[in-house]
TrEMBL record:
This is Uncharacterized protein. It comes from the Bacteria.
Amino acid sequence: MWQFQQIDNPSGATLWFSDGQPVTAPRGGDGVSSRLMVDGQGFLDLTDVQIAATFGASVEAIDCNGVDLALPVTPAELTLWLPGDGSFTVALEDGGGGVAGRLKPFPAVSAADAAYLDTMIAGGYVPYPNIPDAPGKTTEQIRALGQQLFPFSPYAFELAMSIYDWTTASFTRMVFMKIFQYTSMPASPLPLDQSSIANEIWESDWGTYTPQNPDYMKSFLMKPATSLQDVQVQLASVATQLQQFGDVENRLLAAAFQSMPRTSTFDQPQLFSGQMDIYQLGTEHFGIEFLQCPLNAGPTSVPLQIDLQLALDTYIGVGDTLTTKMVWSFGNSMDEAMQYQNGIVLVANPPTGAAVWDVASYITPLSDDPTKIEYTFAPGTTFLVQSVEQTQVDSKTVWVINLLVQPAVALHRSPGVVDVAQEASAG
């Protein structure tokens, strides 16, 4: 446990913690990560960890954006210095030690993207309405959560709404419009495999999410359809707008995910995802989720689907690097992943030595269902394949793929950072 007793903030920057509590409130606890936001400068993640000390013992410490400050006693009284240049120093109040480093930068958010989302909200396309089997959230609740979680941004509401909408059936639209892009073709906008998108929409049959349901089809900017040809004709007329819709939402999601408070790797050492988690997608669609898929280069006459074994044999093997085209959702247990799997389970592992999941975000606070545990990786996240094995889980045969998350930015143990944690632990 720890508490800021003194804060030197000569620039006068506004400070917030993402938990919504006062800046000087007591915080911490086993595996707890707390995110401080410094207006105009960036994030400071303070995470309770255990570090090695003399004779192999361990002591409680706070990881401060990748550098450890040992806490000789708890609760610890701390001083925070924010000179205004994007750096920070956290020290023990009694002068027993301190660490310094850089704040993590705020993400860029496009005013045009926020304005576009506002028009889709005004048009009733966002958020998804009439959600079955989940309580949902009101616009007022989403706005209040935006102010708590993203107070540094003038687009706090749009960032919150983008995550909320992802947790609804709208995620299907965002997935289709990403994985069915030919991402290696030199064209703007990127060509789409419209035939596959239309087929997946037509085959939707999950509760009320069918091509005959007005709400579901409106999420694709369409009207209820009576045939596959009907979907194909409608898609052809809205494909460009639908692609822009998806691109905007995914950019906002990436910024919102980056801004959410971090999860401690001590609290969640692994994350799990069942694939394919849209039931009408098969294992032949797993390989197209990555920029490394050779089919991304076209031609567009070749549908975006690849036999799973061929993908595993060519670019999803041990030692290969994969970059996602879409948002990936994970839970915190194998049991949960098995509920969603359609032949594949992914196990995500954090970078060695990382105290927090820097590129994974716990988004349940903004979910339409507060009981659903969900961690998300933004499009463009890179993973190293550690192992690929076909095995039995709960009497079901699945491919289990272990992935090592590659850090987006080198934030851990950065060169030049002043670190006197060893002095503190020795004392």
